# Entry
Amino acid sequence: MVDGHFPFRSNRGVNLLPLIEAKRDGRTFPDGQLEKFVEAVAAGRCQDEQVAALLMAIFLKGLDTAETRSLMLAMRNSGEVLKFPEDERPLVDKHSTGGVGDKVSLILAPLLAALGLRVPMISGRGLGITGGTLDKMESIPGCRTLLSPGEIVDQVQRIGCVICGQTDKMVPADRALYAMRDVTGTIPSIPLITSSILSKKLAEGIGSLLLDVKFGNAAFMRTPQQARELAWSMVNLGRHCGVRTRALLTGMDTPLGLAAGNWLEVREIVDCLDGRAPTDLEHLVVESAAHLLELSGRERTLDAARSTVLGCLKTQLPRYRFEEMIAAQGADLDAFRAKLKQDTSAPVMRELRAPKAGIIRRCEARIVGEVVHQLGGGRTARADSVRPDVGVDRLMKPGHAVDSGLVLARVHAMDEAAADTALTMLAEAFSIGDEPPDQQPLILETIK
# Structure
């Protein structure tokens, strides 16, 4: 610490050394210093080496609740915060930590809009084996996800929902810090994850937030305890900031739904909106919507909220809201509907068949995600492009009895060689035995 104050200006910008030394030695930051740090990062006035060192010090020593709150609010306030006109419709959102086949957001946003809520859903792209909501949206012909703050507010007010990307003016400090975390091994830090997620969500101006914190072989958090720790951190911080916040701990050892891959998942969400949802996907959608109805004060109990959600799903209103939303974002509805009628939009489609009769004991989400990634449906670096039409669908799930030769899944690929590789990889995702597997509930726990 220099004269008890930091950071200070040097001839190379803002000098973070006193901050680095303080956290290295396990001390807390004085009031106002994290705000100055975030302001300097957003303005590009810090040396990369020192930002990296400070992030590593935080990774190793942690932040207390007050520090995490200061960091998150400073990140949120580093850019534009959406402002909506006052009306009777609550502003809500949901965030998932990501998984394979997780297409809940694309169903949930129009469903909640149909239920009389407003959903300004700012989403992200996929990375590694984790699918991205924006990539799914952009697999719809003509659909755009880069909207201005004014367009976001206008669409939410007119239609009730939007699914779009973070604007250049929203939370610029988070973009800078995340890029540095990505190359310094500091991604898995609870305070940094909490600050990153909540800074973006609170920049939406919402009053209620549901968090879907996943754990398992294809999740960022591998164990329930790790997921629980992150969930408590985000729930507590959200509440401290005046946002009604709740978290669901959900398993990600098996893909969610029956499809993985951007366009294939869009087809599945349309099936869900038309009343043909896989059991696990419908369950998570209904529970997510019910929790947000209760959190926002629209329903007094979860049971009442579930009944309301199930009733709405039996109507065509959520499907209408979905098409209204994508049309507002530039989608060509005629091309969209024509594409839905195609059995496959990839050049090659191949089937994986069961090598023997028995009961499926495992369909490993991590391997399914790796198959989609290998086919070109995911990205390794954030600048990579993705192939929207590749992936896996008609997945058979654990607990199902199969005969020898029955189709376990279909692979959609760009060429025969890619399909061959994918089939070989995908076969390793399944195991078939004589006894049904032990299966835990999809939603392990609710953290309020």
